[in-house]
Write a structure and sequence with these properties.
Residues 249-359 form the DNA polymerase III beta sliding clamp C-terminal domain. The chain is 19% helix and 42% strand. The longest helix has 12 residues, at 7-18. Helix 3 runs antiparallel to helix 4 and helix 5 runs antiparallel to helix 6. A hairpin with a 2-residue loop joins strand 20 and strand 21 (291-297). By secondary structure, it is an alpha+beta fold.
């Protein structure tokens, strides 16, 4: 194997593939990155039996071939190379890398022991890459991180014709986002559970092209795998075999009061007050017409903080407590200048959603224009002392 490639192109492809490498591989070859050259194209691949990643770049090749090299070391080397074309040559059990005056010689791993990457399932549909990245980021923040409860570490992906719904929960909050896409076949219906960390990472890094192609098996080859591909990159992940909670039954269908919050000002105030909130103690929110008072701390042996913020509030005065981290995560994921928070009682979940600028009709009835069907973030309240 012998080829020449631009340093930036090689470094980017290797770095992207190395992200999916396991930190503690079960067998040594899974720590490797597979380099394959054929017909003027280099494929850079990684696979650990759960997640696969493959990037393709154009190169000037004089000899086709393949080599398996230590992945993280290769990523560090290519990132540190000077800004010159890179020459790569595989000779026997070593890989030589030359770039300007820098030269490296790496040992190779036994390529014959490396597992074959899974084939991509059949194409299910296409979504705008920026919309997909935003939606996944909004929902994945609510996924659990306890691997002993696998159903809570995933994002539920539901497809009903031209509508995709994503949902995730860690039992203390629930995030749901809907968005439109273009299915390959009309009337497509599917529901799978995707590991949240893998989905979030893929959604953020498959943005080199305008669209992301989602691939799902409808039976037979590729069953139990979700494929995602963008321009010159593709990744697969094994699906979680677990039953997701019936989240629609958790989402309140009505509210007794609601507040319209200026997201930036309210977030800044919440961050300041939360500075004195000891681990596990709530942020106290006292809603009255025209304002909310945020409080934290209060005992003699800890700090205290209080700040008022102007909000629109419709309903009877309400005092409710939240985990400050969970509240701030939801505010950061709304992505609008104003947010609406709906309440039933101080001990039942509140629902945060984005609010668009009001139209003339909304101004007439005095209600904010809730963003139809886009993003909802349910957060469980914390019981306040006393």
């Amino acid at each position: 194997m012998k080829f020449r490639v631009a340093r930036e192109v090689l470094a980017e492809a290797v770095a992207w593939t190395a992200r999916s490498l396991p930190p503690r591989p079960s067998v040594p070859v899974l720590a490797g990155i597979l380099l394959e050259v054929e017909g003027g194209q280099l494929a850079v691949s990684g696979f650990d039996y759960e997640v696969s990643a493959r990037a393709e770049v154009d190169v000037q090749s004089t000899e086709a071939g393949r080599a398996l090299v230590p992945g993280r070391l290769l990523a560090e080397i290519t990132r540190a190379l000077p800004p010159h074309p890179v020459d790569v040559v595989a000779e026997g059990a070593r890989l030589a890398i030359t770039c300007g005056n820098a030269k490296f010689s790496l040992p190779t791993l036994p390529v014959e022991d490396y597992p074959s990457l899974p084939s991509m399932p059949s194409t299910a549909g296409v979504v705008d890459s920026d919309a997909f990245a935003e939606a996944v980021g909004q929902v994945a923040v609510a996924a659990g991180r306890d691997d002993t409860l696998p159903m809570l570490t995933g994002v539920r992906l539901e497809i009903e014709d031209d509508l995709v719904t994503l949902a995730a929960t860690d039992r203390y909050r629930l995030a749901v986002r809907e968005f439109a896409w273009r299915p390959e076949t009309p009337g497509l219906s599917a529901a799978v559970l995707v590991p949240a960390r893998t989905l979030a990472d893929a959604a953020k890094t498959l943005t080199s092209g305008p669209e992301v192609v989602l691939s799902l098996a409808s039976g037979g080859s590729g069953e139990g795998i979700l494929g995602m591909s963008g321009k010159d990159r593709r990744t697969t992940t094994r699906l979680l075999d677990a039953e997701f909670v019936k989240y629609r039954a958790i989402m309140p269908s009505e509210s007794s009061s609601f507040a319209t919050l200026p997201v930036g000002l309210f977030t800044d105030a919440a961050k300041r007050v939360a500075l004195v909130a000891e681990r596990g103690t709530p942020l106290r929110c006292e809603f009255t017409p025209g304002q909310v008072t945020l409080r934290a701390g209060g005992t003699d042996d800890e700090g205290q903080a209080e700040e008022r913020c102007d909000v629109e509030f419709d309903g009877e005065p309400l005092t409710i407590g939240f985990n400050p981290t969970f509240l701030l995560d939801g505010l950061a994921a709304v992505h609008t200048d104003r947010a609406r928070m709906d309440f039933t009682t101080a001990l039942k979940p509140a629902v945060l959603s984005g609010v668009d600028e009001p139209s003339a009709d909304d101004a007439d009835n005095g209600r904010p224009a809730e963003r139809a069907g886009s993003y909802r973030y349910l957060i469980m309240p914390v019981r306040l002392p006393g």
